[in-house]
Here is the input.
Amino acid sequence: MEDKLIIGGKELTSRLFIGTGKFASNKIIPEVVKRSGAQVVTVALRRMDFDSKDENMLNHIPQDCILMTNTSGARNADEAVRIARIARAAGCGNWIKIEIVTDNKYLLPDNYETIKATEILAKEGFVVLPYMSPDLIVARNLRDAGAAAVMPLGAPIGTNKGLKTKEMIRILIDEIDLPIIVDAGLGRPSEAAEAMEMGAAAVLVNTAIATSDDPITMGEAFGLAVIAGRKAFLSGAPAVKDFAEASSPLTGFLRS
Amino acid sequence: MNIILNGKNTELEKPVTLLELLELKGIDHEKVIIEYNYDILMRDDWNKTVLKENDNVEVLRFVGGG
Here is the structure.
């Protein structure tokens, strides 16, 4: 069966996107990428700390990955646009995850500023994937502003709570003719599979892999769950029923 | 001479180029990106750009992120 995910003109080999934050050792990232099958990998841009020996994250990301810089740290559209332009000028391609946050407790995205940044960057030729609070009208605005996909949160970043926004995401999948990528909050492979079974185009996972005891195996588990969930979605799950319906024939019983 | 380096006032004894500034700070310049007065400066221009009073320099690098 043909089942392609095409974003920004690229046919993707995996529906699992992974983030590179919070790994105890960045040296294992190439193996996490390999075993999870992930192709799209996110990074962040920060000021150099002159007092510590920093390593360059890009050294740990396999060459054949699609780099997606996030705009974390941005508090408004202008700051996000600045980060995106720097990332592109630095040779990191034109995929950008817009992440605009002003709330420090729940790290929920500012949808209004996100729409503004999406519009500016899409016009400049970026492949724009905005991280957003799931809301149908906002998603429509993002689509109209030129987003390449829409990335609603399942739960607040790093909480591992799973698909708390499930019904709102279901509405986006139903109504928005763009890939819907569940980003943030997924804590278990089963939750990634659940999102995929619903028809999400992909999921983005960082904390659940990076902070597990064995990130390489957890990455693989998420990769498998995403494949399983996608296959289930394409297979058309039968309806849920209130009453039992026997799986074995109801005739020919061996009774006296 | 005073410049703003990564958001902080920084005193320089004499005018230097951006490349010399990185060397002063012990930074491996292969790994960084420079924004000079809010414009991204290409690598080839780093040794041609002499810092002036009140210049704003951001030395940036990629880190892990989700």
Observations:
- The radius of gyration of chain A is 20 Å.
